[in-house]
């Protein structure tokens, strides 16, 4: 395993976590918007 490959894997894992994190934030934000509209 080459060091560059390890760094590439770390970067892709970070990108994956970032995308999941943003997705969760967007879902929560949309839920809040829907909740605010109902009240």
UniProtKB/TrEMBL annotation:
Q: Species lineage, top-down? A: Bacteria, Bacillati, Bacillota, Clostridia, Eubacteriales
- Species source reads Clostridium neonatale
Q: What is the protein name given in its UniProt record?
A: Uncharacterized protein
Enumerate the UniProt keywords alphabetically. Membrane, Transmembrane, Transmembrane helix
Q: Which domain of life is it from?
A: Bacteria
Q: Which residues cross the membrane?
A: 12-29
